Amino acid sequence: MGEYVSVADAASLAPGRGRTVNVRGREFALFNMDGRFYALDNECPHVGGPLGAGTLEDGCVHCPLHGWGFDVKTGACRKVPARPVRSYPVRVEGGQVQIKI
After folding, report:
1. Fewest C-beta atoms under 10 Å: which of 5, 38, 62, 82?
2. Per-residue model confidence (pLDDT) at position 81
3. pTM tops 0.70
4. CA–CA separation, 69 vs 35, rounded Å?
């Protein structure tokens, strides 16, 4: 079922950027892609790299450790399709980015 939890001011994350946010003891990678926000589990399944610190390019975040790419909308892994990361619904309410967890 889940609930939406505020994680950041929408204005604080510029388009084309990402970062790590902590919610209730968990880390999520939050991205602004052309004014739309997306959230993934922060940990790359390869060796645990922080996806929130990765490079965002063409709708894909690249892990800063070994470059595995993940679709920010779906979490699909482009290098190893059998190793996706979980994606989460995101909305903006009252200027706040909220992740459904």
Report:
1. 82
2. 96
3. yes
4. 20
